[in-house]
Structure formats: structure tokens, C-alpha cells
Design goal:
The protein is of the alpha/beta class and 121 residues long. It has one domain: Rossmann fold (3-Layer(aba) Sandwich). It has a five-stranded parallel β-sheet with strand order 2-1-3-4-5, with helices on both faces. Helix 4 links the parallel strand 4 and strand 5.
Length: 121
């Protein structure tokens, strides 16, 4: 059965690039354009891996991940921030929230594939 990846990012372009990178490898890629919509998708379907942007409208990535980690169903699921942010302070917040990794946009397709395979299988 295909692993399901949820890409939560307000950039249509980034979501499309993630989809084009991962779907040919057999992953199912779901999309949400903000943190709240991401939580809604995660409530409705089992997710194997989360890719989350930090800066989004409605609910930012930190708030979204905090909520995901508070839910029994999604708490153990790996989360990687995919964002333009790269400060040590923001990364420290991510570690405190329990994220598994941090990728800076623009991303290299090979690096994305490697981290998804390592954390999601």
C-alpha cells in the first residue's frame, strides 16, 4: 500500500513540485494550503509523513505541528519542515515541537526523496 504524504504549504508551486517529485515513486500526495486545512485532512485520513511550511495564513506551521503532535493518531508520524526559514532560533522551536527534520526552500528533489524514504519508508 502506498505511503500517504501530506504537504501543508500555502505555495501552489511548492505543493505541485512535491507532488511531481513523490508521486512517480508511488507515494500518494495530499495537499493543504494552510495549517488548519492540514489538520482537517489529517483528521479525515491516515497520514504517513507530513511536510509543513512555517509561514502560512490562517494557522502557521508551528501551531499546526503543535496540534498534530498533541493528537494520538498523528503524534508518532514524522514531520519535516519545508520552509524558507533557516534561523537557528526557528530550528530550535521545531526541535522542541518534535519535528524529524528541516529542509530549506528551494529544495533539491533528490534530498526530498531521501528524507521521505528514510522517515516514511
Amino acid at each position: 500500500m502506498a505511503k500517504t504524504i501530506l504537504c501543508i504549504d500555502d505555495s501552489t508551486t511548492i505543493r505541485m513540485l512535491v507532488r511531481k517529485t513523490l508521486e512517480p515513486l508511488g507515494y500518494q500526495v495530499l495537499e493543504a494550503e494552510d495549517g488548519q486545512k492540514g489538520l482537517d485532512v489529517a483528521s479525515a485520513q491516515a497520514i504517513d509523513f507530513f511536510l509543513v511550511d512555517v509561514n502560512m495564513p490562517v494557522m502557521n506551521g508551528f501551531e499546526c505541528v503543535k496540534e498534530l503532535k498533541a493528537r494520538p493518531k498523528s503524534a508518532p508520524v514524522p514531520v519535516v519542515f519545508l520552509t524558507t526559514e533557516s534561523s537557528d532560533e526557528k530550528k530550535a522551536i521545531g526541535r522542541q515541537l518534535g519535528v524529524s527534520g528541516w529542509m530549506v526552500k528551494p529544495f533539491e528533489a533528490d534530498a526530498l526523496v531521501k528524507i521521505v524514504k528514510m522517515l516514511a519508508g
